[in-house]
Request: fold
Amino acid sequence: MLGVMSGIYMRETTALMLPMIKPWIDQFSSILEHPVQSKDPDDWSIRIEVLKCLNQFIQNFPNVVETEFMVIFGQLWQTFMSSLQAYKRSSLEVLEDPCDGRYDSDGAEKSLESFVIQLFEFLLTIVGSAKFVKVFGNNVKKLCTIPLLFYK
Reply:
């Protein structure tokens, strides 16, 4: 629904969202600042929701979010790198996922794989946005190699 807004609706929605963006980014930053754990589906679920929100912000309010994005940049990088480590640990330690078959209240699967998929979708959103590729600047090459490391 947000993606089809234009004109007056977009201006009104942006005006409503503007005062909420900074507090949300601050909260998202505090959620993402801790390393991803390989055996904590509740942590993955909240991180998935944060990434979904950030996706919407980037796609629909890029001018508003661009100024606040540097606040969360370090935590996002930490999330990318720690999720890679968690994924490696998970794939090496366990043949059968102990969290397999767990679902949240919306019926979405709570798994590390679901989190990694959402992380990749977020990565695609960033790389697909000219404004946000600039924010990641020198790290785009390294950022783009992360999916390859997951496949190893």
